[in-house]
């Protein structure tokens, strides 16, 4: 950043601090709990938040599970541009990105770990009700959002497939009845970059309206590559969406939408940490790295993903019931080039190409709300095709060194993985709520799902032929694999209104996530078991198979709205138990990636509160304490799975990865008049995450992290224009966001070094917006 930008950034930070220190107006806002419908300055209470977490519009205070909703205006004013940033506003959620864009998303300390892409996440993602079947889609363009809903606990009955640990629902803005335009543009001072958003409503007739929205950003990253001089990961995101809403009759509403997105990432946020030679960097977690690959023009790792989402929804009011049909098509195509040695040596490169498409159809029949008995029944169908081709180009020089058996033969020699998966899922579900008087409600539901996976998995190698690509990672012919799963899942809850403003509830859910075969396991077998130098089909099956994951979750709590609706206070206790938890680790040695099953659990408590102190001044609090652990077979000192004297596996209980015990979000915000024609706002928020581990067996500790964000805004009283200044992580607090052994064994063997990526460091964004 040049000196002029530094002076601007310093002045902005001082101005924010001065504004927030002013005692008459100081306040902190936690966007984690900003309402989906913004409070007006004249309101004296907390605005009601309407969500569709259970496929009906209802107050969040009447949903018998923990739901956190974030309004689109709050997301935009905070400069949130993707899901990775959005989750920092929600207590109890961690979302990290591995070097190859594998995702580690946890709710309450549990979730699907990074690297394998053959399996879905156990926290499902929906965009306007469309199920996003692959983790790659979790990082697609994020724009023109009406609200986001984070739904915790098992939600299998109504949300279905792979919502065993919760779900995230993104609801986009819908076409309006009057012609309008809104736009926002911002510049980032700390690292450089800009972002532009625009949307317009165009009524076409009394029965039709159209909304067109677009988004583009080019934002530099927070880690400086001292070899290339580039700040990564740079994000270049383009998103375009058109939504058409038709109402041909009074009883029928049809909404169709299409979204195209192109997401490019240049560079990586990872660096070698440890006592390494200066040519490889300073070895400190400080936002500096030294790496290079000859396979891209930039010399950096590069990721490019292009995606398409088409959605058609029809609502037909039949009087006593409503029929809803939702049809969707989702596809993406990607090409990744990853420098996996994270050094200037250019010794390990991974190339990955993927193609994916899915078609889904849901039909449901639901009764109106407000009756003694409310019900919903329906069916769901999904078919998908996924093709993954990965080249692992290993050329680590001289390892092991001379004298080691066999010298230079490990981590040297390329191989290529081909994994093609066709999948089908069929579901039928039913749910009902019985009102037993004015205060007591009982809800129950079941969902039956059959899921089928057909896979062809193969591996080939190329010269030089070494121990690494003939024994440690031996080749095998394209092998047909098949897996069927049959699930009966469900949810039940009991709600009782102690008073008009206090609701007590208890809920239980059972969810499932299909197993099958994973594309990342090494499948190393002893040479005597190879047939003509290849792994036989039975051992390919055994080495890549993962069992179905099953979850029981329990929750009990209170939801309250007190002090004439000025105070919202919700508290819940939870317990989650998983059988055959699908876990993945990277060993950093000849065993490579290992995905396996084992038991896991999480238990704890959550608190969510908002207090409208005055019509202009609001305080927020969100906190999650979650103790998540699991039973695993640890590795012994030699790097092999531990066994006892008789050769039997040894097991022990450890804390789960990406599972801090405590996450707290605090804040307050002020919005009020500056003059007759101007309003102003000021806010700050704090997020504290306790320490966590990044790999199983409690390895690679990330120290606790506390970040502070500040904001200052001014707008016209009619909200036609506004300016927002947002500084995130103003103290430049740093910790490991994700860490693992280095893929290049030299750094661990010779220097005790490992691979780590720091959390996002300070950014300062100034943005302006207009509406007319």
What are the main properties of this structure?
772 residues; 22-stranded antiparallel β-barrel; mainly beta; 6% helix; disordered N terminus; Maltoporin, Chain A
What fraction strand? over 45%
Sheet having the most strands: 22 strands, antiparallel, barrel
Q: Tell me, briefly, the overall form.
A: globular
Helix tally? Answer: 6
CATH C-level name = Mainly Beta
- N/C terminus separation: 35 Å
Radius of gyration, taken over Cα atoms and rounded to an integer in Å: 26 Å
- Secondary-structure class: mainly beta
Which stretches of 5+ consecutive residues score pLDDT under 50?
1-43
Q: At the third CATH level, what is the topology name?
A: Maltoporin, Chain A
Number of strands: 42
3D architecture notes:
The chain has 772 residues and is mainly beta. It has a single domain, classed as Beta Barrel (Maltoporin, Chain A). The chain is built from six helices and 42 strands. The radius of gyration is 26 Å and the shape is globular.
List the helices and strands and how they pair.
Layout: H1 3-21, E1 50-51, E2 58-59, E3 67-71, H2 72-77, H3 83-86, E4 93-97, E5 103-107, E6 124-127, E7 130-131, E8 145-152, E9 166-172, E10 180-188, E11 193-205, E12 208-219, E13 223-225, E14 230-232, E15 234-249, E16 252-266, E17 271-273, E18 288-289, E19 302-317, E20 322-339, E21 348-366, E22 373-394, E23 415-436, E24 440-461, H4 467-472, E25 476-499, E26 502-513, E27 516-517, H5 537-544, E28 545-546, E29 549-562, E30 567-586, E31 593-614, E32 617-632, E33 652-655, E34 662-673, E35 678-689, E36 692-695, E37 699-702, E38 705-716, E39 721-728, E40 736-740, H6 745-751, E41 754-758, E42 763-771
Parallel strand pairs: 6-9, 13-18
Antiparallel strand pairs: 1-2, 3-8, 4-5, 6-7, 8-9, 10-11, 10-42, 11-12, 12-15, 13-14, 15-16, 16-19, 17-41, 19-20, 20-21, 21-22, 22-23, 23-24, 24-25, 25-26, 26-29, 27-28, 29-30, 30-31, 31-32, 32-33, 32-34, 34-35, 35-38, 36-37, 38-39, 39-42, 40-41
